[in-house]
Amino acid sequence: RFLEAAAAGNFRKALQLYEKIAPFPLVLSAGCEAPCEGKCRLAEIGDAVAIRKVESAVARFGEASKLGGIFRSKKRKSTAVLGSGLFALFLAGELEKKAYPVTVCCEQENPEEFLRCAAGFLDDEAFRLELGRLKGKDIQFSFGCRIDAAFLEEKRQCFDMVCVSESILDALLP
User: Fold this and answer.
1) Which residues contact 58 (CB under 8 A, 6 or more apart)?
2) Residue 138, pLDDT above cutoff 90
3) Hey, which of 49, 76, 132, 163 has its CA 20 to 30 A from 155?
4) How far apart are CA 99 and CA 160, in angstroms?
5) Which range is least confidently modeled, 28-37, 116-125, 132-141?
6) Per-residue pLDDT tens for 25-61?
7) How much of the chain is in helix, strand and coil states, percent to nearest 5?
């Protein structure tokens, strides 16, 4: 359905479908190595689908959906995501999409640094678009955190669920 909508020029519908699996579609389309392109049956006749280009075009030119509103009720369980990088970015996006109250605690000082840490490979336009998408999500941030064992324990007492990025976990475990 995604490719059908994109092929028909209905980038709004295509983006709505893409956002169901990707809270940050430009990060995914730029970061994915698209192994499916090499396996596309159309490649046998020289017409393989350039899926990364389709995804990027849909994410750049489609109209992002607005998930908020009066009919979207928040879950009761609160979540903290500790750290930064792709894991923290996508997990926070997924949790927010599922209406969990989520707070990201990271060492970076602002949303730009947080996104740059996760997706420094984006071009300037994609970065600007994804930064707008990040700022438009209902994600709380606690910037400039020094995440150590005491900080982790404090967050475990404050949140129902605490998710820790691999780099933070590696630093905390002997």
Assistant:
1) 2, 6, 11, 14, 15, 18, 25
2) yes
3) 132
4) 14
5) 28-37
6) 899 888 877 777 777 777 777 777 777 888 888 888 8
7) 55, 10, 35
